[in-house]
């Protein structure tokens, strides 16, 4: 006999899009409203996305997730969100708030409930035990370890539907989603350049190409990533500290991992080895191997800040997923090119990028233009 429960397949999964590079801090644009969901469920999913965006750092390797429990009349019973690895998942937080009132509710969650025992217990089982009758989620869980929640809920007789605001949910956790699907961290390559594509003057001086405002903006972006990567040459020549600092140059309490790629011996007095943050060496010249090691360390978003050689190595390996460039209204006419030779001899071989966003950072003499792009190949 046919069961009355069914898994409703949501709208076709949109291509991975980076149209809004800093969507985590922006409000829901509310595109992609599926029609199979009630108005109350749509409202609840907007709220769940909002909850998931609640600023809480550090989140660790886990995604941002929000959950709302709805009574049969569509009113809200409880809500919850995930506060980082080791703390309760969004569903568990909402169930705890609801207590006995969870029975008979619909759980509206931004991510498919997990079905594994990791740092905490399986949410699918907790929802079943609490008597939740319907689960609506936005994004299927791309993490193979945790996936399977929808099937488990369905098998237990819970009505399951998904795809509501899936695009927004994927953007919310864009680096995490990418890393889970590609099995490697998402790579943002950031660099600063003069108008004529130089990262240093002919005598090697490179301080400062970008303006103060652009450097403050860079620190904000660093703070959104979980590892900052440079090569041994940058450590030797520029001696960066590579920490995340606020506009008063004070280090933030939570610092991403610092990683140095390359095999060259380095003096331990380099600033990157100070105690302000953890630093690791990645003793390889192979970008894929470096990313593999970072992935094994649960890192999902690399902020690539190396020099021209490291950038060229990642570009040549097709391992740059996003480019953020600060263009200074400054001319040098000579000096180091922002990117080393990519082996392109003719126009037909040019590497093309798609522009996502162009923003002027700072004003007057402090103004730089920030362009955010992604390679034509993906997303
Ligand atoms: C979260 N928060 O609200 C949900 C998650 O290491 P664990 O045990 O915390 O499991 C993390 C995985 O669980 C995560 O990668 C994702 O696949 C799934 N769901 N995770 O951190 C949540 N619902
Ligand atoms: Zn869970």
Write the layout of secondary structure elements.
Layout: E1 7-8, H1 39-52, E2 66-70, E3 76-81, H2 90-98, E4 106-111, H3 123-129, E5 134-139, H4 149-155, E6 159-162, H5 166-172, H6 174-182, E7 186-194, E8 198-200, H7 212-222, E9 227-231, H8 232-237, E10 257-261, E11 279-282, H9 287-296, E12 301-304, H10 308-316, E13 322-328, E14 336-337, E15 353-361, E16 368-375
Helix pairs in contact: 3-4
Bound molecules: ligand AOF and zinc ion.
The site of zinc ion (ZN) has 5 residues, from loops.
Order of helical and strand elements: EHEEHEHEHEHHEEHEHEEHEHEEEE
Quickly give the CATH architecture of the largest domain.
3-Layer(aba) Sandwich
Q: How far apart are the termini?
A: 42 Å
Question: How big a fraction of the residues is strand?
Answer: 15-25%
Total number of helical segments? 10
How would you sum up the global shape?
elongated
Number of beta-strand segments: 16
Which regions contain 5 or more consecutive residues with pLDDT less than 50?
Answer: 1-34
How many structural units, i.e. domains?
2
SS-derived structural category: alpha/beta
User: Mind telling me the CATH class of the largest domain?
Assistant: Alpha Beta
Fill in the CATH topology of the largest domain: Dihydrofolate Reductase, subunit A
Radius of gyration: 23 Å
Taking all residues together, what is the mean pLDDT?
A: 89
Quaternary form: single chain
What order do the strands of the largest sheet run in, or round the barrel if closed?
11-10-9-12-7-13-16-15
> Which bin fits the share of residues in helices?
10-25%
Bound ligands, named by name, code or SMILES: ligand AOF, zinc ion
CATH superfamily of the largest domain: Dihydrofolate Reductase, subunit A
Major beta sheet, specifics?
A: 8 strands, mixed
């Amino acid at each position: 006999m046919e069961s009355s429960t069914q898994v409703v397949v949501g709208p076709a999964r949109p291509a991975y899009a980076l149209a809004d590079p800093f969507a985590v801090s922006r409000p829901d644009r509310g595109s992609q409203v599926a029609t199979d969901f009630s108005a109350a469920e749509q409202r609840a999913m907007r709220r769940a996305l909002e909850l998931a965006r609640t600023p809480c750092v550090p989140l660790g390797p886990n995604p941002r997730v929000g959950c709302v429990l709805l009574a049969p009349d569509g009113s809200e019973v409880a809500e919850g969100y995930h506060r980082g690895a080791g703390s309760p998942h969004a569903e568990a937080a909402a169930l705890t708030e609801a207590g006995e009132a969870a029975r008979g509710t619909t759980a509206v969650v931004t991510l498919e409930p997990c079905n594994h025992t990791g740092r905490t217990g399986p949410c699918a089982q907790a929802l079943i035990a609490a008597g939740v009758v319907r689960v609506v989620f936005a994004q299927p869980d791309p993490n193979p370890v945790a996936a399977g929640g929808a099937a488990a809920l369905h098998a237990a007789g819970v009505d399951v539907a998904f795809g509501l605001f899936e695009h927004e949910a994927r953007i919310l956790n864009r680096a995490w989603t990418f890393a889970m699907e590609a099995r490697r961290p998402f790579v943002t390559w950031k660099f600063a350049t003069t108008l004529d594509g130089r990262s240093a003057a002919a005598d090697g001086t490179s301080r400062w190409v970008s303006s103060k405002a652009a450097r403050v903006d860079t620190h904000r972006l660093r703070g959104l990533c979980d590892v900052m990567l440079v090569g041994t040459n940058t450590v030797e020549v520029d001696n960066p500290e590579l920490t995340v600092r606020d506009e008063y140059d004070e280090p933030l309490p939570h610092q991403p991992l610092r990683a140095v790629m390359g095999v060259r011996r380095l003096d331990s007095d380099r600033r990157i080895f100070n105690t302000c943050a953890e630093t690791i060496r990645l003793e390889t010249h192979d970008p894929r191997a470096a990313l593999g090691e970072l992935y094994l360390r649960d890192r999902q978003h690399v902020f690539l800040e190396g020099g021209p050689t490291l950038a060229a190595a990642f570009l040549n390996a097709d391992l740059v997923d996003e480019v953020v460039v600060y263009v200074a209204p400054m001319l040098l006419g000579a000096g180091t090119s922002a990117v080393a030779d990519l082996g392109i001899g003719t126009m037909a071989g040019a590497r093309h990028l798609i522009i996502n966003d162009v923003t002027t950072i700072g004003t007057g003499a402090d103004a730089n233009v920030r362009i955010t792009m992604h390679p034509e190949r993906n997303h």
